[in-house]
Amino acid sequence: MKQYHNHRAVDGVSFDVRKQSIFGLLGPNGAGKTSLIRIITTITGADEGEVLIDGQAINRLTPMDIGYLPEERGLYKKMKVGDQLMFLAQLKGLSKIEAKSKIDKWFEKFEITDWWNKKVDELSKGMQQKVQFISTVMHEPKLLILDEPFSGLDPINTNLIKDEIYRLNKEGTSIIFSTHRMEQVEEICEDIVLMNQGKIILEGKVDQIKEDFKDNVYKIGFKGKLPSQLANENFKVLEDKEDHVIIKINEGYSSNALLQSLISEGIQINSYQEIMPTLNEIFIKKVGSSNE
């Protein structure tokens, strides 16, 4: 729990991040995500409760095991890139020799070996983001917290950073991923927690959550012509196009029964798929209902 004057930013929040998983921490602005991340990274302390990493309560040494990429970037704009990364690496406990070796490897990997003496304010926003990412991971943290990691990146560099996130995760790093881009969460995360007004309002595996929120809606492709009106008290036509219809079936009516009903109308069906809700739709629905 975390209280600021008359505002409770984090209220009874409790969840587990599975080791070596990619975990989504989601919520609208003001939900309490940043306050929670600051507690995990020991920037601030919790008023009640505790955070455990590998079964041990966090302490002043915990930041050495964490990499944190905040949404608001923190590079020194007038400092040379190489000098800045050396400084940040040594803050994380690396020796000068270790830091130089790791930075050189990352520069080669990202094909930016000529950036060492560039000042940060000479770089584009996307280039600065690559430097910030290196500063976050070069000490090989056990836990990596990424807040909008693809902000400012073009599609090529987004894929570059994404590949590195997957590689780090495969090699043992647990990752907490926070973003407002729900399509990225669907692609990247295995489990999620959705916060609103300091509380958890939804949690679980992404696939299971989508299964739980499905609404019996199907897209059916066909050849030929539909009857002028599909009349059936067991389903409702939501969209009627030249080559497909989208139908919502009522509770207690099966998809097999829907198919049989359409075939009995003489419709030649060539495709049939259930439309699953997107995380974005679920996000809007849950946050909206929790605000009522």
Task: Record the SSE blueprint.
Elements: E1 2-4, E2 7-10, E3 22-26, H1 33-40, E4 52-53, E5 56-57, E6 66-69, H2 81-91, H3 96-109, H4 125-137, E7 143-147, H5 155-170, E8 174-178, H6 182-188, E9 191-196, E10 199-205, H7 206-212, E11 217-223, E12 235-240, E13 244-249, H8 255-264, E14 268-274, H9 279-291
Parallel strand pairs: 3-8, 3-9, 6-7, 7-8
Antiparallel strand pairs: 1-2, 4-5, 9-10, 11-13, 11-14, 12-13
Helix pairs in contact: 2-3
Task: Name its key features.
Rossmann fold; 14 strands; 9 helices; alpha/beta; 2 domains; 292 residues; 4-stranded antiparallel β-sheet
Chain oligomer state? single chain
Count the domains: 2
**The CATH C-level class name of the largest domain:** Alpha Beta
What would you report as the Rg, rounded to the nearest angstrom? 24 Å
Report the average pLDDT across residues.
93
Approximate strand percentage: 15-25%
Helix count, per DSSP? 9
Query: What is the CATH superfamily of the largest domain?
Result: P-loop containing nucleotide triphosphate hydrolases
- CATH domain topology of the largest domain: Rossmann fold
Under the CATH scheme, the architecture of the largest domain is: 3-Layer(aba) Sandwich
Which ranges are low-confidence, i.e. pLDDT below 50, for 5 or more consecutive residues?
Answer: none
Shape: elongated
Largest sheet: 6 strands, mixed
Span of the ends, CA to CA: 23 Å
Classify the secondary structure makeup into a structural class: alpha/beta
In the sheet with the most strands, the strands line up as 6-7-8-3-9-10
Count the strands?
Answer: 14
H and E string = EEEHEEEHHHEHEHEEHEEEHEH
Helix-residue proportion:
25-40%
